[in-house]
TrEMBL record:
Active site per UniProt: 38 (nucleophile), 41 (nucleophile)
Site-annotated residues for Deprotonates C-terminal active site Cys: 32
Species, as recorded: Lipingzhangella halophila
Cystine pairs: 38-41
Domain Thioredoxin, chain residue ranges per copy: 1-114
Family per record: Belongs to the thioredoxin family.
Keywords, comma-separated and alphabetical: Disulfide bond, Electron transport, Redox-active center, Transport
Site note Contributes to redox potential value, residues: 39-40
InterPro entries the record matches: Thioredoxin, Thioredoxin-like_sf, Thioredoxin_CS, Thioredoxin_domain
Record's protein name: Thioredoxin
Molecular function terms from GO: protein-disulfide reductase activity
GO cellular component: cytosol
Lineage: Bacteria, Bacillati, Actinomycetota, Actinomycetes, Streptosporangiales
C-alpha cells in the first residue's frame, strides 16, 4: 500500500500509521480525507497544504487516501469527499465536509481549537 500524498506534498498517513501519527500526537492534527477521482479534493488539498505551512508547529496536517485505506475511512464514517477531520488529544473534535475557502476553513479550525 502506497502513501501517496495530495498535491502540495502534505505527508500521508495510512490505516497502519494513523494511530501513531494522528491519535497519539501531542498537538492537534488536521486530516484531509481524499481520493484521486474527487476533483474538489484537489482544490481543498491545495488550501490544506497552505495551512500546513502556515500553522507548522501548532497544527499537524496529514492527507489520507480513502481508496487505499478503507479501515480508518469506515471507522470515522467518512461518507463524502473531501472531508477534513480535526483531532485533538486523540479524539475527533470537528468534521468539515466539502470545499471551503481558506478564510472560512481557518475560521472553523480556529473556533474548534478555541473550545
Amino acid at each position: 500500500m502506497s502513501l501517496t500524498s495530495i498535491p502540495g506534498e502534505v505527508p500521508a498517513v495510512s490505516d497502519e500509521t494513523f494511530t501513531r501519527e494522528v491519535l497519539r500526537s501531542d498537538i492537534p492534527v488536521l486530516v484531509d480525507f481524499w481520493a484521486e477521482w474527487c476533483p474538489h479534493c484537489r482544490v481543498v488539498g491545495q488550501v490544506v497544504a497552505e495551512i500546513a505551512g502556515e500553522r507548522a508547529g501548532s497544527l499537524t496536517v496529514r492527507s489520507f487516501n480513502t481508496d487505499e485505506n478503507p479501515v480508518t475511512t469506515l471507522t470515522y464514517r467518512v461518507m463524502s469527499l473531501p472531508t477534513l477531520l480535526l483531532f485533538r488529544d486523540g479524539q475527533p473534535v470537528r468534521s468539515i465536509v466539502g470545499a471551503r475557502s481558506k478564510a472560512r476553513l481557518l475560521s472553523e479550525l480556529d473556533a474548534a481549537l478555541a473550545d
